[in-house]
Write a structure and sequence with these properties.
515 residues, alpha/beta, Alkaline Phosphatase, subunit A, 9-stranded mixed sheet, 14 helices, 15 strands
């Protein structure tokens, strides 16, 4: 390749696909992404390998599923070299790319040491700009006081102080002043992950009483069983009566989607105005989804429901087909091998994802390879069951705001405001993450194996919220066997191939299993 293209990965945190107008939601939550889809290729069935931030992000950078790279929760002490042979960042650096993270990290990567530029943000604290120190610190204090909660009133700070706006400000500045070409920018928004807050004009851009009805509330938990019901109890324990305000939660979430969307538009407009569009690939995706009130739940924490595992995914850039909405089943693990294919780099050993480059460029590819998808959840071991759950109480998963929380050294004397919301919950806890859940989806059918509850079979065309288990339904034995075989195939395929020894593994172009 004579000229290496620039690469921008725009990642959101906890953005589910079905509340986006890009995917048919009736409210205009994502018009910029709709426009981006007309300029490139969009995927209707993109999936996270797991609905947990850290392992999903590690899967993107390594092209490996959690059961291979070994990280299944958000708390880990590091990723050993034997857990991956190479990753996206190292490949790009060897090719001479300027690398930058602007936003949330939440991986094994140490940006300060491994990237040329790092401007980091968390959910409650942003990068402080010296010229805006007072207002940035005031906004951070307000975010810490809200403490992962749901704002009942508009955020008393302008959109210019919101993290997505500041992240795009920094990204434009980095590209304009510091980034030689080729460059790689990981633009990583902490939103729409909670705290669910948004300023005017976004706060009531989608008024609560005008939102479509949710498909299922807490009554649906009877069909889902333990630990879904246990998580609902934990949320209610921390935020009594919260489900009565699900419309406010969803209204804020939709407003956050639109705010993010406006900033994505601003970044893309900048790229095009600088004449970079014809040599820059822009990839938009999310690490996983959010309940946003469905099942009477918020955030994530149990199971592999579609609202958690199905994510947005759009790609535009030189050579990518325009105006295409694909129905192929793809995964975040496919990003790394696709970039390798784009850049003409041999796929590193241990990578499990598949190249989408032929698909993106209109070249032949094996369609049967993308007829199904796999995802997983849980850190393994024996699951907590209803009979033994008293051994782990709700209080053990309550997070109480300390006197200082995620504050920078120069703000260490900060104390939360009187009456501030200072208690929330850890949805990723010893109960909800225990055991193991695996899924395979093929067409409109989805099979789930839950170590604690056995097999579940759903027809998503007629039961999109997976409330009616058809595993023992008469006349569906052949469909059950088909999905069981598909799940077994994925489990075999995602076995860890590392550490690599003296024997050569068979590889086919694109890392496709079926020639």
């Amino acid at each position: 390749m004579a000229e290496k293209p620039n690469l921008i990965i725009i990642m959101t945190d906890q953005q589910r696909a079905d509340l986006m107008s890009l995917y048919g939601f009736p409210l205009a939550t994502t018009p910029a992404l709709e426009e981006m889809a007309t300029q490139g290729t969009c995927f209707r069935h993109a999936y996270t390998p797991t609905p947990v931030c850290v392992p999903a992000r590690i899967s993107l950078f390594t092209g490996r599923f959690p059961r291979a790279h070994g990280i299944r929760c958000n708390h880990f002490r590091g990723l050993e070299e034997t857990r991956f042979k190479d990753d996206l960042l190292r490949v790009l650096k060897r090719l001479g790319y300027f690398t930058a993270l602007i936003g949330k990290n939440h991986t094994y990567i140490n940006p300060a040491k491994e990237m040329d530029c790092a401007i980091e943000f968390s959910h409650l604290v942003g990068h402080i700009r010296p010229e805006h120190r007072a207002e940035d610190e005031a906004f951070d204090r307000w975010m810490v006081d809200l403490f992962f909660g749901v704002a009942e009133a508009p955020t008393p700070f302008p959109a210019a102080l919101q993290y997505p706006t500041r992240i795009v400000d920094h990204t434009i500045e980095v590209i304009e002043r510091r980034a030689p070409e080729p460059f790689f920018a990981w633009v990583s928004f902490p939103e729409p992950h909670n705290p669910y807050q948004v300023p005017e004009p976004y706060f009531d851009m989608f008024p609560p009483d005008t939102l479509p009805e949710r498909a299922c509330g807490p009554k649906a938990l009877a069909a889902k069983g333990f630990p879904w019901d246990w998580l609902h109890g934990l949320i209610e324990h921390c935020h009594p009566g919260y489900d009565l305000r699900w419309r406010r939660l969803r209204s804020n979430y939709c407003g956050m989607l639109r705010l993010i969307d406006d900033q994505v538009r601003r970044l893309i407009d900048y790229i095009d105005s600088r004449g970079l569009g014809n040599r820059t690939h822009v990839i938009f995706l999310s690490d996983h989804g959010d309940f946003v009130g469905d099942y009477g739940l918020m955030r994530k924490g149990v199971g592999l429901a579609e609202c958690l595992v199905r994510v947005p995914f759009a790609w535009r850039g030189p050579g990518v087909m325009e105006g295409i909405m694909r129905d192929d089943f793809v995964s975040l693990t496919d990003i790394f091998p696709t970039v390798c294919d784009l850049l003409g780099v041999d796929l590193p050993e241990g990578v499990q994802g598949r190249s989408l480059w032929p698909m993106l460029t209109g070249k032949p590819y094996p369609k049967t390879e993308f007829e199904s998808i796999y995802a997983e959840y849980g850190f393994g071991g024996l699951p907590w069951r209803e009979a033994g759950a008293e051994g782990f109480t709700w209080d053990q998963s309550v997070i109480t705001q300390p006197e200082t929380f995620l504050m920078k050294p120069d703000m260490s004397d900060y104390r939360p405001a009187a009456g501030a919301s200072r208690k929330t919950f850890d949805e990723l806890n010893s109960v909800t993450l225990s055991g193991s859940v695996k899924m395979a989806r093929k067409g409109s059918w989805k099979l789930i194996y839950n170590f604690a509850g056995g097999l579940e079979l759903y027809n998503l065309n007629t039961d999109p919220y997976e409330l009616h288990n058809l595993i023992d339904e008469e006349g569906l034995s052949s469909k059950r066997e088909e999905l069981e075989l598909e799940l077994i195939r994925w489990l075999v395929r995602t076995e860890d191939q590392l550490p690599f020894d003296r024997y050569r593994m068979k590889r086919l172009p694109g890392n496709y299993a079926k020639p």
